[in-house]
Amino acid sequence: MRFIIxxxxxxxxxxxxxxxxxxxxxxxxxSHIYLEVNNDxxxxxxxxxxxxxxxxxxxxxxxxxxxxxxxxxxxxGILKRLKDLEIIVETNDNNLIIKQNKSxxxxxxxxxxxxxxxxxxxxxxxxxxxxxxxxxSIRKITPAIDNNNPKFELNGALVDIKSxxxxxxxxxTRRLAVSHLQNISNEQNQFIIPKxxxxxxxxxxxxxxxxxxxxxxxxxxxxxxxxxTKLINGKFPDYDRIIPNSLKYNFSLPKDMLIESIKLVTSxxxxxxxxxxxxSIIFESLDEDSESKTQLDIDLNIENTFxxxxxxxxxxxxxxxxxxxxxxxxxxxxxxxxxxEDEKFFTIVMPIVLEK
Length: 356
Fold this sequence. Notes:
One of its GO terms (biological process) is DNA strand elongation involved in DNA replication. This protein has 356 residues and is α+β, with helices and mostly antiparallel strands. The protein has helices at residues 7-16, 72-81, 131-141, 195-204, 255-265, 312-320, and strands at residues 2-6, 32-38, 41-47, 51-57, 62-64, 66-71, 86-92, 95-100, 103-108, 125-126, 156-161, 165-171, 175-182, 189-194, 210-213, 217-221, 225-230, 249-254, 271-277, 280-285, 293-297, 306-311, 326-331, 338-342, 345-349.
């Protein structure tokens, strides 16, 4: 195998493949990137079996067909040190050789025939949705996806395809985040995408792509790239039970003022108490060792004063992902879960229970 390519073209792809490589065991073949030159095209693959990426490069200046593997981390380390000029990549015995001007690097290879193949499902379901809508929907719920929860299904986002809409759902047990789109033609179904895959999808795909899934995998592809992830095998909690049927109080509030007030009182401590009265909202820190307090004068037209206590991070996560100048906050009583909404996106937050 041999090819000549501009350094920054291959470096960008090798860099994007780093999250897909086995990091703990450098002796595993999945710590390597697979390279194949075929008819002046370079195909590159990286996978740790759970998640994978294949990319195609057409900008080869000269090539000889062949296959190779190379440790992905070591390859990136070399490419970063080279100049943004052409490089020569070729195989010699069981080594991959990289040359630029008078510099030469030699890295050991594994047998490319043993490299794992990316899945090609038979009974594939096409998800009829634009890539932009998918990314916008999962971006809003990403902060609410849990990390390392013993209940594996909570370490991912649920895609719940209903007859009339598609819900994207995540919860870390302290909050529930849901964004939704109208369902035009997709059949009813559910599947759970791991958090790592959710994050990588948002990095990789900016233009439109084909989205498909089966019982085991989600596959997203365009002309240059194919991404896959194994889906989480589990049953997501019945989130509909958590969504309140009605709300006693419902306000539309200016987003920027909320953000400014919350940040003012959370410089030292993240837990806050927000008190609502007929003509003001008072924000105060729950830190016992210091005092932070600010007031927002606003006419709410309510008779009784009530409050909510909460980790401010949950509020700021929601507010940072909203599109409009105003957001809706809904409550029933102090010390009960409360509701935040902006168009097709809402979050339900569990409060910090305070003694009345």
